[in-house]
Amino acid sequence: METTPTLPKPAKSEIVKQAKAYVEKLFDEQLPRQLVYHTFKHTNTVAKEAAALGQAAGLAAPDQEALTLAAWFHDAGYIDRYDGHEYRSMELAEQWLTQQGYPQERIGVVKEIIRATHRDEKRDTELQKLLVDADMSNLGREDCMADAELLRTEWEATQGKVYSNIEWAEFQLDFLLQHKYLTEAGKDRYKAQLKDNIKEQRKALKKQEKKAKKKEEEAEGYAEGKRGVETMFRSTYSQHQRLSQMADQKANMMISLNTVLLSVIITYLGAKTSQIGPAFTKNPVLAVPMGLLVATALGSVVTAILSAQPDVTSFKWLRRSPQIATNRRVNILFFGNFTKLSLDHFQDGMHELMKDKDLLYNNMITDIYYLGEVLSRKYRLLRVSYTIFMVGLILTALAFGIVMLYKA
User: Fold this and answer.
1) DSSP letter at 12?
2) Which end of the chain is more exposed for a tag (fewer CB within 10 A), N or C?
3) Residues 6+ apart with CB under 8 A from 231
4) Which CATH entry fits the domain spanning 10-135: 1.10.3210.10, 1.10.3720.10, 1.25.40.10, 3.30.70.920?
5) Distance between CA atoms of residues 329 and 307, nearest Å
6) pTM tops 0.85, yes or no
7) What pLDDT digit, counting tens, does each position of 224-241 carry?
8) How far apart are the first and last CA of the chain?
């Protein structure tokens, strides 16, 4: 049985080795940490695949070098921007290659190869098509599924694109079905595995659909449990509202009491015709208990006001995140959150919420959580207010007692 001889790997040129080292250092120092797919590992894989495709296509040494250099720099632009990073990659490649004294005409070839990796650019030359095939080689490799999950995570972190499991499985299947490798070398290297990946993605989609259907059936079969959950939510909301009203009443009581106390003290101490005013002037030692009483009333009323002060939880970045219904931290039902959105985004979020029971419950749970945070703050400040008032009155009474003994 005859076997096809393996072609020897061409030796790397010195400029290619230097490019690898430069890009590795560049990514390590400047690549945003949210990028978990477009990392140096991805670039290293693309460079290896490009070299292998170029060798299979029988490229001459200068073209092989240009293709590999383009592969090393094709994602370098991610250090500055996400969309349109290809054009920034071209600039970085030109700057570095010029510094290395690389021929200008060959720099132009490298830049045009990188340009072709943008989704809207034409792929006319063999070198351009080879790099595009290498860049999309993950679709024709066994680690396709794992890479797809990394890309999903990266899009959520950098672009705000959030997909459900079914939506992502459908998106991946459509992408795999539509993709076509452009070169014969690419087809020979990846086509068989691409077909296998399409089969695996179909299985994954069916599995997700079965899970969703089973979830719906379970939800329909537990109507009584659903009513119990809704009763729990109603009682919890009612309890939080009662506790909030009680806190506000206690705060208003302390505000009223201490305000009256401060008004009386200031009025009598400042009035020349009152009995307390002259007595206070003749006995300056009374400043100690009176000062304690004023400080007590002031500290108590300030903390009571802070407790009664409205506290609205909001997120400044909501305007840039239309998929808020799926965000675990955000409650779209709360005015402090949805008033940061445009009307269109709010309507989209509400429609999405009404379609998914889990999302609805998640928003209600988030609402209860933040209500609890507000209540905790209210009662903590109320406790401080009452403690200041109690301790202050005790100290004032002791101070008056000491003053009376001193006078006697």
Assistant:
1) P
2) N
3) none
4) 1.10.3210.10
5) 24
6) no
7) 556 677 777 778 878 877
8) 122
Among 116, 93, 98, smallest CA distance to 26 is for: 93
Kindly state the helix (H) or strand (E) to which residue 124 belongs, with its residue range. none
- CA 339 vs. chain centroid, Å, equals 20
- Determine the Cα–Cα distance for residues 388 and 297; give it in Å rounded to an integer: 8
Between CA 316 and CA 369 the distance in angstroms is: 19
Helices (H), 136-222: 144-159, 165-178, 184-221
Q: Which residue has the tokens 């490229």?
A: 59
- Residue 246 has a CB neighbour count (10 Å cut-off) of 14
Q: What is the pLDDT of residues 2-31, one digit of tens each?
A: 444 444 444 568 999 999 999 999 999 999
Residue 315: per-residue pLDDT: 45
- Residue closest to 179 by CA, chosen among 132, 142, 146, 115: 132
Dist CA 193 CA 353 (whole Å): 39
Angle between helix 287-308 and 357-407 (nearest 10): 170
Closest Cα partner for 289 from 210, 400, 370?
400
The token pair that represents 39 in the structure block = 């990392």
Residues 6+ away with beta carbon under 8 Å from 179: 136, 139, 194
- Write down the residue that tokens 């209540």 correspond to: 375
Q: Which two tokens stand for residue 400?
A: 């008056």
For the chain, domain boundaries: 10-135, 140-221, 225-407
Helices H / strands E in the chain, number of each: 15, 0
Q: What is the pLDDT of residues 332-368, one digit of tens each?
A: 666 655 566 667 776 777 777 677 777 777 777 777 8
Give CA–CA dist 346/90, Å, rounded. Answer: 40
**Coil, helix or strand at residue 141:** coil
Per residue in 273-309, pLDDT tens?
455 555 555 666 777 788 888 888 888 888 888 887 7
> Which comes out higher in pLDDT, residue 316 or 215?
215
Q: Which residues contact 402 (CB under 8 A, 6 or more apart)?
A: none
Return the amino acid letter for 82.
Y
**b/e sequence 5-20, b meaning 16+ C-beta within 10 Å:** eeeeeeeeeebbebbb
